[in-house]
Write a structure and sequence with these properties.
Layout lengths: L1 E6 L9 E6 L8 H10 L1 H13 L10 E5 L7 E6 L10 H18 L3 E4 L11 H17 L17 E6 L2 H12 L1
Parallel strand pairs: 1-6, 2-4, 2-5, 5-6
Antiparallel strand pairs: 3-4
InterPro entries: Macro_dom, Macro_dom-like
Organism: Cellulomonas edaphi
Protein name: O-acetyl-ADP-ribose deacetylase
Amino acid sequence: MRIEAVQGDITTQDVDVIVNAANSSLLGGGGVDGAIHRAAGPGLLDACRELRRTTYPDGLPVGSSVATPAFDLPARWVVHTVGPNWHAGERSGSMLLSCFVTALEVAVELGATSVAFPAVSAGAYGWDVDEVARIAVGAARAWETGADSSWEPDHPHPTGIVLARFVLFSPQALAAFEHQLAR
């Protein structure tokens, strides 16, 4: 699995799955969440409303992930994950780690081979971007090495994911992720 970090707009990524740093309502918001909802078009909001009506009437719990179609995005699916909110006292690294792990699990269930992640919880939710980068890159590396040791880089990864891309909006976030990737 190739793990990389780029600066850019997650809504333009040509991957199977883009991960949305959603709020528990799943009904859109600011930052990455709002950008994804705007770019995907009204179908995404309709799909999220249906999830709220059926599967998650109380909202998606922190650290959990769920998929919808991507509608007008270049990706095939959006995997929504709810990061912990530092400002609300949700300061457990394991809660943040769960966002990345459950998003990868859902992506594999979908049959995805490529996933683009934002810096979940590093924006409005107030987590330090260096800590988010450490946890996110650690999660991707653990996912990669948790597979069958006979895997060879020229063949599909046993879990199906061959690319994990962190798409960062700011130069500061990119630098934090590049630092972790260089370690």
